[in-house]
Amino acid sequence: MLTLLAFLTLILVYWFTKPRKQDTNLPPGPKPWPVIGSLHLLGEHETPFQAFTSLSKVYGDVFSITLGTSKCVVVNNFNLIKEVLITKGADFGGRPDFIRFHKLFGGDRNNSLALCDWSSLQKTRRSIARTYCSPRFTSLQYDHVNAVGCKEVSVFLVELKKKDFSQPIELKPMILAACANMFTQYMCSTSFNYDDSDFKKVVRTFDEIFWEINQGYAVDFLPWLLPIYKGHMEKLSSWASDIRKFILARIIDEHRLSLDHNLPPRDFTDALLMHLDEDPNLNWQHIIFELEDFLGGHSAIGNLVMITLACVVKHKEVVKRIQQEVESVTGGKRLPTLFDKASMPYTEATIWETLRTASSPIVPHVATLNTEIDGYTIEKGTVIFVNNYELNVGEDYWDEPEKFKPERFLSPNGNVVKPAHFIPFSTGKRTCIGQRLVQSFSFILLTTLFQEYDIEPACDLKLRPGCVAVPPDCFKLKLTPRNK
Known about the structure:
Layout: H1 2-17, H2 39-42, H3 48-59, E1 62-67, E2 70-75, H4 78-87, H5 99-104, H6 120-133, H7 140-160, H8 172-188, H9 197-213, H10 230-258, H11 268-278, H12 284-295, H13 297-312, H14 316-330, H15 345-358, E3 365-366, E4 371-373, E5 376-378, E6 383-386, H16 388-393, H17 435-452, E7 453-457, E8 477-481
Parallel strand pairs: 2-6
Antiparallel strand pairs: 1-2, 3-6, 4-5, 7-8
Helix pairs in contact: 7-8, 7-17, 8-9, 8-13, 9-10, 11-12, 13-15, 13-17
């Protein structure tokens, strides 16, 4: 044992003292350790993005870091982030080749729109989705979003009234069920009973996957650890398989039987099936995974609603102001609609402030060719981390960033304003295509909840920084029906 320790010590001494032949034009950064690179530096902080911010104080706004076997570059300020996402977006169109991503999408992460490398095929798939997932405010499609959201929130309230309000309520499963039905109704013209066991299982599974994607694992950068993660990887594959079976059996099969190519598509599912028959570049895998991708977007909304509730109920003055604003528009006599949003700027600003404080990380990009950032050489295959955390909570960008202040998103005359550096849904050609649905359905749910109930914490509502997900089994809340 002593001989082995002495040998390892000699290796470490040699590693840290030997001269390096290195391109001096690479971004500066910490010297990596053998095998693990600089992963140990990330472990010193609660989240990797806090570590990136700390390291930027030492190495600058763009620096190199080796994570396991992966060459990475972290970009911290807004101008450089724009260079990566917009000016040179074509140079950074790839995504990390994490094994977990492959497991979630049938063995090939390129089946996913969010986790795929950019290509002409992915551009085609996004164009099919754009009409449905990014509806214009003045379009009939936007009217349909409103109708679907309002109808489902009425069903949600009926289900919620069955609860025992004398006890703290586990609200997240119901929120997620409502969001899932909004998506299936809007995209597939179908919805499910909240007590449907298969539906409940698939909603839970989607939430497990959303939490999973928002986590980091050593195996992402140390693939030789895969045997240790064998059980975890099998679980991911099983989750993905269960979701796929549900979508095929309960949604797609029925649509294929009633599809009429002589009529306009009834919904997004019809549009996908029609393109499958008409476009030789699309296959069945592309269609099923695209629908799965967008249906899974309901988890992002459910988690955002839960995080917003957790943030807001800690501040009674924010709750009171939201309730006053909502009731000034609805009079407490009807449920809010999407078209009330323009008259509820403080409530909308509260959602933006939640997104700021949650600081959802942007999915890493990968350089698809040899290029540059800020004059530094970036080699093909380098993973690029966009430090959205710094943009959202950095003192250079915000006044009193540690405080929850929705009014920071309001102009002096009360209109909603967002600074250019605030990009919670990313920017450029890989911006989140479903962000309008996220904003729309979360607004309808939150305004309805605050109009109908007083909501209080039932425990310490601690949220993980730099994460827009909460665990599948999370906090409970106290709800009291309001006497309006």
